[in-house]
Amino acid sequence: DVDVEKSAEVRELLKEASNKKYEQLLSMLSEKNTGPRYGIGMVLGHDATGQIEVVEVFKNSLAERTGINIGDHIVAINGVEKTWNDLTFPLFTEAGKNVTFTLRREGNIVEVSAVTVLLRNDRREEAAVLRAQLESTGAALVNRLNAALDAEIVFTKTQKKLFQESLAEETERAVTDFSDWFFNLEEKITTLLDRW
């Protein structure tokens, strides 16, 4: 026997997950994320105290060539002390800007200077095409999946076994179509937003 409440709960979680995936991909395709990127080739994060920490240095980047290392803490940018909460993103908005980082490395203070460069070209036009696909086909797949799950929830609760098998098959097809299409689109978005 099927636990009706547990079955309905699982279906609700699946609906929530499909909606979140849709919103996540939509966010990845925002103008902010798909515009040109400037910098020196590193990824910043923060430690538990809110200090800015270098978490990745791109291979063959200016950051690597100027000696910035993973684990360095940035204490100042262009002479102004900074914490994670002080940063606004994007950090750099154009190429050709001189920037000096004051770093704390293993207890020592080190200064490095670089000039910002274009790290990634503007991808907004390409992203608009993917966004249109997401807003049409992707939204339709989410709606189809949610409708199939809603129908299964209703029929499972009312115990109408005659319809349960065909509804389960439709839900399975909807889940497969959703998963395949969204996985494919996510790969395209990831390739589009590749940092180099």
Highlighted features:
single chain; 196 residues; alpha+beta; 6-stranded antiparallel beta sheet; 21% strand; elongated
Describe the model.
- It contains five helices and eight strands.
- A hairpin with a 2-residue loop joins strand 4 and strand 5 (80-81).
- Helices cover 51% and strands 21% of the residues.
- The model has no long low-confidence stretch (mean pLDDT 86).
- The protein is elongated.
- The longest helix is centred in the C-terminal third of the chain and has 35 residues, at 124-158.
- It has helices at residues 4-28, 31-34, 62-65, 124-158, 161-192; strands spanning 37-39, 42-46, 52-57, 73-77, 80-81, 98-105, 108-115, 117-120.
- Helix 1 (4-28) packs antiparallel against helix 4 (124-158), helix 1 runs parallel beside helix 5 (161-192) and helix 4 packs antiparallel against helix 5 (161-192).
- The strands form two sheets. Strands 2, 3, 4, 5, 6 and 7 form a six-stranded antiparallel sheet that branches.
- It starts with a helix and ends with a helix.
- It is an alpha+beta fold and 196 residues long.
- The relative contact order is 0.16.
Q: What is the strand and helix layout of this fold?
A:
Blueprint: H1 4-28, H2 31-34, E1 37-39, E2 42-46, E3 52-57, H3 62-65, E4 73-77, E5 80-81, E6 98-105, E7 108-115, E8 117-120, H4 124-158, H5 161-192
Antiparallel strand pairs: 1-8, 2-3, 3-4, 4-5, 4-6, 6-7
Helix pairs in contact: 1-4, 1-5, 4-5
